[in-house]
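Section 3.1: Structural characterization of target chains.
Under the original work plan, the team committed to producing a structural model for every single-chain target entering the pipeline before any wet-lab resources were allocated. The record below documents one such target. The sequence was received from the expression subgroup and is listed exactly as submitted; it comprises 296 residues.
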Amino acid sequence: MTVDQSRLHIAIQKSGRLSDYSRQLLRDAGLRIQNGKNDLTARVENFAADLMFVRDDDIPTFVSDGVCEFGIVGENVLAEYALGEGEARFEIVARLGFGRCSLRIAAPETSAYSGPDTLRGARIATSYPCLVRRFLEERGIDAEVVKMRGAVELAPRLGIAGFVCDIVSTGATLEANGLRAVETVLDSEAVLVRTARDIGERKTGLGESLLSRIDGVLATRDSKYIMLNATEESLEKISAILPGAEAPTIVPLHGRPGHFAVHAVCQESVFWETLQKLKDAGASAILVVPIEKMMM
C-alpha cells in the first residue's frame, strides 16, 4: 500500500458502532468518502484526505508514529496506550460526544463488596491492565491484575479471577454473566486525536481546515437558532433566559418604536419550558430552527 504524503490520513475503526459514528461525523463535515466499508483505505473525493480502517487499539500507534495525522478512537483505548508507552506523541483536539462508555470493575452478584479495600489481595481480570494498575496505585491497593484479550466476564466463572474490569455501556453483558459494577475506573467517549509530530506546512493547513469543519459539526448538534420579538423593557430579562447564547443580535422593528427582533444561536438544548419562560418574560413570535452548518 502506497501512502500519498501530500494528503492527510485519518485512522478510524474498521467496523462497529464507533466506525459508523466516525464515518457519519466526517460526512457531516462535508467529506465525500469514495470507497465501501470493506476496504482498508478510502479516498475522500472533495478534500485532500484518505481514511485508513484499522483495529481500534492500533489507532494510537498510527497517530503517535505519524503514519496518520489524525485518528478517531475511544478515550479508553488512548489512555491505555499512553500509560503503556510512557510517552504520548499525540494530543486530543476534540471530544466527539459519541461512543460513551465506562471502564468499570465488576464483582459477582453473590459476593459482598464494601468499597475499594475489598480488592486488596484479589485477582482482577481485564483487557486494560495499565488503567487498572493506575486505579489501584492511586488508592494504595495491592492486587494482582490478570491481562485477558477477551471474554473477560467469564473470568470469575472459570476461577481465573474474583473480579473483572471491562467496558460497560448498558450493563447488559455484566448482568448476563452474573456480575455487577462496583467501581468506575474511567469514563470514556470517542475523541479526535492529532499527531504531535511535525507534519509540514501543507498538512498543517489541511488539518486546521478539517478541525474547523468538525468543530462546526459539533457546535450545531445541540445548537438552535432562535428568533423572537420583544419590547425594549423585556430585552434584558429575555437575554438572560436564552440558553447557552452569547450576546444576541437585536434589531429595531420597522414601524414599531420600542420593539425589537432578537436573533440568537443557542448552544444548549431548547426545551418547551424555555419557550414558556421567554413568552412570560415578554417575547412573542418565537421561532426555533435547527442549524445545518456553522463555521466557528
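The longest helix spans residues 200-220.
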